Amino acid sequence: MTMVSDGEREVFAALADVLIPAAEGMPAASAVDVQGAMLDRILGLRPDLVEAFRRGLAAAAGIPPADAAAALNRDDAEAFGAIGIVVSAGYYMTPAVRELIGYPGQVKRPPDPDETPEYVENGMLKQVIDRGPIFVPTPEA
Which pLDDT tens digit goes with each residue over 115-136? Predict the structure, then answer.
């Protein structure tokens, strides 16, 4: 687990709200607590982002969040990208957001052997059959 300081969490929350503000009935990123336990979870899942993420937070400290985001985007795309990935992953993994968008998460849906697959019913497979084979043999070396 990555230890993130309270100061870093504050900077992250401010940047997160610039990247995902409240709009059209959806909450801002900090309103669903992406800066809390979810931040630790995401960084634990993506340790490859920690260095760039922390570098971006350090560069953004003490700067108005919108200005900091613009400067990071311009001057350190890797750090800005790491922050963006962490914000978006945390946001869409929160139960409140998943409920608002109607996404229950991954669910097991075993195929019904007696049901005709959708790709057969909607004509997708027929297009492939009608097109015919497109295999091109590799020339001999």
Answer: 888 888 898 888 889 999 888 8
Tell me the per-residue pLDDT of 73-85, one tens digit each, with 9 for 90 and over: 999 999 999 999 9
Domain ranges in the chain are 6-101
CB-based contacts of 47-54 (< 8 A; 24+ apart in sequence): 47/2, 49/82, 49/85, 49/86, 50/2, 52/76, 52/78, 52/79, 52/81, 52/82, 53/79, 53/82, 53/83, 53/86, 54/8
CA 45 and chain centroid, separation:
12
Strand partners, 26: 23
